[in-house]
C-alpha cells in the first residue's frame, strides 16, 4: 500500500476511518443546511446571526474542552466518543424535526448550536488523542494527515451535495441525512477490536488526571506555546470561511445556495490535496508551519480582492491547501512531541485554543461584514495571519540566539544555533 495510505494497514484505524468519512460528508451537509436556514428562513441574510450561531457552536470548546481532555486521559477514549457522537446525532435530528415541522425559531438554533458544541467539546480531545492508540508512532503523522483528508473529502462532497438536496427537497431532509451519518462512527467504534488499541499509560497510585497537569506541562514547553499562538490566530481570524464564503457568494457576487455550496467543495479540493501531501511527511518542521501560514496570508489577500466569482472560487483551491497545511503541521507537531501520559489534556488545550477563538472571531467577522462589507471578512484573516507569521519568525530568530537564513525556495527557513543547522522543534526549556 502506498506510503500515503500506510495507516490504513491497521485494521482498527481502517474501520474508524471508514465511519469517519461517512460522518464527515454528513457534517458538512449539516453545516451548509444550518447556515442556509439562518440566512434565508430565520433572518433576512443576517451576518450577525450567522456569526452568533457559529460562535455558540465553538464557545463550549473554551469552557469544556480542558476538562474533556482530562476525561479522555482518565477513561476509554473509544467509549467517550461513542457517548459524544450519540449526543450530536440526537441534537442534529432535533434540528431537522424542528425545521421540517415549521417550529424552528432563531433562539432554537442558538440553543441547538450551543448543545452541539458541548458534545463536540467532549468529543474533540478524545478523537484527537485516540489516533495515537490506533496506530504506532511511525504512522501517527500519516494517520493525522489521512484524518484531515477524510475531513476535507467531506468538505468537498458535503456542501455541493447539500446545495443540491436543499434545492430539491429542502433544508429539513438535508439535516435528517446529517443526523443519520453519525451512526457510521458509532458503529465503527463498536466493531473495532479494543484489545489491539495501544493502552493509555498506567496511572495506578497517581489518582485521576488533572487539568492543571496538562497546563503545567505546556508552560514548560515554549515550542508548544508558540504552536498554540499560531493555532489561535489561524483558527480565530483565518478559518471563518463558513461565514466569509456565504457573505461573498450572496452579497458580493449575488449567488444562491447552489453556488454557496460549490465554494466549500472547491476549497476542499485544495484542502484534500494538502492533507494527502501532509500524509507523506514523516515529521513536520517549523519551516513548513510558518511558511504555509505566510502563504495562506498571501493567497487570501488576492481572495479578498477577487473581481469575479470564478476567480474567487479558483483562489479557494490554494487557500484550502495552505490552510490545511498549517492545521495538519501544528496538530502533528504537538502530538509527536508530548508525553503520552498527558497527550489527551495537551490536545484538549490545542483544540480549545484552535477552536476556542471562534466565539470571539465569528461575531467580530459577522459585525465587520455588516459594517465594512464582505471583503473585509477575508482581509481580517489575511492581516492577522500575516502578522502572526512575521512575529513567530522574529521570535525564533531571537530565541536562544537563533538566526534565520532563507533559502531560494518559497519561505524555507533554516534555523542556526552556534553555527549548526537546527531543524528539530525548539528545546523544552528556555535558557
Key descriptive features of the protein:
single chain, 431 residues, 15 helices
Unreliable stretches, pLDDT < 50, 5 or more residues?
Answer: 201-205, 402-431
Number of helices: 15
Shape: globular
Average pLDDT figure: 79
Query: What is the structural class?
Result: mainly alpha
**What is the percent of helical residues?**
over 70%
Order of helices and strands: HHHHHHHHHHHHHHHEEE
Q: What proportion of the residues form beta strands (DSSP E)? A: under 5%
Strand order of the largest sheet: 1-2-3
Number of strands: 3
The largest sheet, given as strand count, sense and whether it forms a barrel, is: 3 strands, antiparallel
Instruction: Round the Cα radius of gyration to an integer and report it.
Output: 21 Å
Terminal Cα span? 45 Å
Describe this structure in words.
This protein has 431 residues and is mostly helical. Helices cover 76% and strands 3% of the residues. The chain contains 15 helices and three strands. The chain has a three-stranded antiparallel sheet with strand order 1-2-3, with helices on one face. α2 packs parallel to α4, α2 runs antiparallel to α13 and α10 runs parallel beside α12. The C terminus is likely disordered.
Amino acid at each position: 500500500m502506498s506510503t500515503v495510505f500506510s495507516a490504513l494497514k491497521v485494521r482498527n484505524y481502517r474501520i474508524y476511518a471508514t465511519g469517519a468519512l461517512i460522518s464527515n460528508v454528513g457534517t458538512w451537509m449539516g453545516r451548509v443546511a444550518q447556515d442556509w436556514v439562518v440566512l434565508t428562513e430565520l433572518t433576512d441574510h443576517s451576518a450577525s446571526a450567522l456569526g452568533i450561531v457559529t460562535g455558540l457552536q465553538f464557545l463550549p470548546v473554551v469552557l469544556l474542552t480542558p476538562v474533556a481532555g482530562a476525561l479522555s486521559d482518565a477513561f476509554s477514549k473509544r467509549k467517550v466518543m461513542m457517548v459524544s457522537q450519540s449526543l450530536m446525532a440526537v441534537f442534529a435530528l432535533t434540528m431537522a424535526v424542528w425545521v421540517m415541522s415549521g417550529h424552528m425559531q432563531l433562539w432554537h438554533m442558538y440553543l441547538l448550536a450551543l448543545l452541539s458544541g458541548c458534545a463536540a467539546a467532549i468529543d474533540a480531545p478524545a478523537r484527537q488523542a485516540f489516533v495515537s492508540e490506533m496506530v504506532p508512532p511511525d504512522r501517527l503523522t500519516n494517520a493525522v494527515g489521512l484524518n484531515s483528508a477524510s475531513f476535507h473529502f467531506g468538505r468537498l462532497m458535503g456542501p455541493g451535495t447539500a446545495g443540491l438536496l436543499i434545492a430539491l427537497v429542502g433544508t429539513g431532509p438535508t439535516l435528517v441525512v446529517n443526523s443519520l451519518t453519525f451512526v457510521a462512527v458509532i458503529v465503527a467504534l463498536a466493531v473495532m477490536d479494543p484489545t489491539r488499541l495501544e493502552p493509555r499509560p498506567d496511572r495506578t497510585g497517581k489518582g485521576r488526571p488533572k487539568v492543571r497537569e496538562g497546563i503545567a506541562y505546556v508552560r514548560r514547553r515554549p515550542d508548544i506555546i508558540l504552536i498554540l499562538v499560531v493555532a489561535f490566530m489561524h483558527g480565530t481570524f483565518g478559518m471563518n470561511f463558513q461565514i466569509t464564503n456565504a457573505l461573498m457568494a450572496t452579497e458580493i457576487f449575488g449567488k444562491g445556495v447552489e453556488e454557496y455550496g460549490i465554494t466549500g467543495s472547491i476549497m476542499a479540493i485544495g484542502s484534500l490535496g494538502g492533507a494527502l501531501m501532509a500524509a507523506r511527511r514523516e515529521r513536520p518542521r517549523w519551516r513548513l508551519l510558518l511558511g504555509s501560514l505566510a502563504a495562506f496570508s498571501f493567497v487570501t489577500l488576492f481572495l479578498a480582492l477577487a473581481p469575479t466569482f470564478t476567480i474567487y472560487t479558483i483562489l479557494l483551491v490554494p487557500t484550502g491547501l495552505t490552510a490545511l497545511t498549517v492545521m495538519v503541521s501544528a496538530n502533528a507537531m504537538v502530538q509527536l512531541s508530548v508525553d503520552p501520559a498527558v497527550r489527551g489534556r495537551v490536545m484538549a488545550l490545542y483544540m480549545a485554543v484552535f477552536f476556542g477563538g471562534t466565539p470571539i472571531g465569528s461575531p467580530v467577522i459577522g459585525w465587520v461584514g455588516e459594517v465594512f462589507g464582505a471583503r473585509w471578512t477575508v482581509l481580517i484573516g489575511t492581516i492577522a495571519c500575516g502578522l502572526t507569521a512575521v512575529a513567530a519568525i522574529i521570535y525564533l530568530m531571537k530565541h536562544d540566539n537563533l538566526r534565520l537564513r532563507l533559502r531560494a525556495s518559497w519561505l524555507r527557513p533554516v534555523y542556526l544555533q552556534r553555527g549548526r543547522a537546527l531543524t528539530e522543534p525548539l528545546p523544552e526549556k528556555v535558557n
